[in-house]
UniProtKB/TrEMBL annotation:
<feature type="domain" description="CAP-Gly">
    <location>
        <begin position="176"/>
        <end position="209"/>
    </location>
</feature>
<keyword id="KW-0143">Chaperone</keyword>
<dbReference type="GO" id="GO:0005634">
    <property type="term" value="C:nucleus"/>
</dbReference>
<dbReference type="InterPro" id="IPR029071">
    <property type="entry name" value="Ubiquitin-like_domsf"/>
</dbReference>
<dbReference type="GO" id="GO:0035371">
    <property type="term" value="C:microtubule plus-end"/>
</dbReference>
<dbReference type="Pfam" id="PF01302">
    <property type="entry name" value="CAP_GLY"/>
</dbReference>
<dbReference type="GO" id="GO:0007023">
    <property type="term" value="P:post-chaperonin tubulin folding pathway"/>
</dbReference>
<dbReference type="InterPro" id="IPR045172">
    <property type="entry name" value="TBCB_Ubl"/>
</dbReference>
<dbReference type="GO" id="GO:0031122">
    <property type="term" value="P:cytoplasmic microtubule organization"/>
</dbReference>
<dbReference type="InterPro" id="IPR036859">
    <property type="entry name" value="CAP-Gly_dom_sf"/>
</dbReference>
<dbReference type="GO" id="GO:0005938">
    <property type="term" value="C:cell cortex"/>
</dbReference>
<dbReference type="Pfam" id="PF14560">
    <property type="entry name" value="Ubiquitin_2"/>
</dbReference>
<dbReference type="GO" id="GO:0051010">
    <property type="term" value="F:microtubule plus-end binding"/>
</dbReference>
<dbReference type="GO" id="GO:0043014">
    <property type="term" value="F:alpha-tubulin binding"/>
</dbReference>
<dbReference type="InterPro" id="IPR000938">
    <property type="entry name" value="CAP-Gly_domain"/>
</dbReference>
<dbReference type="GO" id="GO:0007021">
    <property type="term" value="P:tubulin complex assembly"/>
</dbReference>
<protein>
    <recommendedName>
        <fullName>CAP-Gly domain-containing protein</fullName>
    </recommendedName>
</protein>
Amino acid sequence: MSSSTLVLDVSHSKRPLVFREIRFQPEWTLEHVKKKLEVVTGTLHSDFLIEVYDDRSQKIGEMVDDQQAVLGSLPIRNGYRLHIIDHREEDNSEDLIWKEDETNMVPKYQVPEASYAQREVSGRKFREEMLQAKTSSLSNNLNIHIGDRCFVSPDNRLATVRYIGMLPVNDLQTEFVGVQFDEPIGKNDGSYQGHYYFHCEPGYGSFVPYNRITKMQTIQPETENPTLEEL
C-alpha cells in the first residue's frame, strides 16, 4: 500500500452519525489507530472492536489485536469506513444521550421563540455575551491573530496560530489557542473530540493554554499552568 495518508470514514454502533474523511498514517499500529478513534468518537479504545467496510458498504473484515501489525499492511483504501462496535453495557452509558428522550411525551410550556428572542434579559443572551467577552478578552490580552508566528512553551517550539477561542473541556468552555507546529511534535490534526477547529497533518496540531503562547517578536520566560494541559 502507498505510504501516503489514508482518508477514511468512521461510524459508531451507538451513534447515528458518520465522521467523514478522518486521516490515518499507514505506518500506525492498531493500538495507535484505536487511540486515534478514541479521540474521534469519545469511546475508550478498550471498549470497542473495529470492523472494516469498503466504499460499497460491504464488510471486508475486522481488525484483530496484533500489536505488530500496521494499518498499511491491511487491505484498506481511501474511502473505506472503520465501524466501531462499542461492547459496553447499555446501563449508565454516556451514549444514552443518543436515544430518544421519552420525557418529550410530557406536555410542557415553552416560551415562543419570537418572544424569547426579543427579551432584553435571558439566559441565552447572557451565555452568548459571556462567551463573546471571553473570546474577545483572550485575543486582546495576547494581541495575537490567526496566522501569527509564535513560540509555544515548554522549549519555545515554533508554530503558527490557526485558531483562537473556546474548547469544551470537562463540560466547560475553556480558552485555548490552536497552533500548527513546524515539526510533527503536536498531539492532533486540528480536531478535538471529533470536531475540526482547523486542519493540518496528524501530529502537527495542538490546542495550547494561552499563557504558553508568545508572539515571535518577543520571547518571555516560560511559565507553567498547573491546571491546563496541551490538547
